[in-house]
C-alpha cells in the first residue's frame, strides 16, 4: 500500500492537474480572436499548403479537444470549435495538427516509430485491464502471477509508445509556432497565447507517460515480492 501511495497517487494527481491546466488554458485563449480572423481550418490549410501538402483532407468532428491527425488516411480532424473558431487557441491547435501532417510528409522518424507501434499498443491497452483484474479473480491468471507479468509487458509497450509520442507532439507544436508566425496568421505579440495553449496540451502527454511509468514500476515491484 505504501508503494502505491508513493508511486501512483502523486502521478494520478499530476495527470488531473495537467488536464485541468490544458482545459483552463484553452478556455482562456479560445476567447481571444486572432487579428487575422482566420479560422482553424483555414490556418491548417495554409500551413499544409506552405509545406506543399495538398492530399490531406481537413474535416470537422464533434467533441471537445478531439482534434487529431490520422496518417493512415491522411485526414486532419478538427473539433467544431477549432475548425470554425478564429481564436488563438483554435489556430494553435489546428496548426499543431498540421505540424503532424508535415512530419508525415518529411518522414519524421519518431512519428514513423509511433505509427509502427499503434497496433500492438492498442492490443496492450485492451489486454491490460483484463490482466490486472483477472489476476484477482481467475486462478489461472493468479498462478505464478501470470496476469501481473503480462500486465507488466503491456505497461512497458504503452510506456514506450508514450515516450516516443513526446518528441512527436513537441516537434509538431514547434512547427506550428514557426508556421503561424511566418505566414502572418498570428503576430509576434499574439504568439504567447498560442504557445501557452500548446505547452499546456503538451504537458498532458508528459503526465500520461509519467503515470504509465509509475504503474510499470509498481507492478514490477509487486511481481518480485
UniProtKB/TrEMBL annotation:
Membrane-traversing stretches: 123-143, 150-168, 200-221
Keyword Transmembrane set for record: yes
Key word Lyase present: no
Domain of life: Bacteria
InterPro entries: Zn_peptidase_2
Keywords: Membrane, Transmembrane, Transmembrane helix
PANTHER family per the UniProt record, alphabetical: MEMBRANE PROTEASE YUGP-RELATED
UniProt protein name: Zinc metallopeptidase
Organism: Cerasicoccus arenae
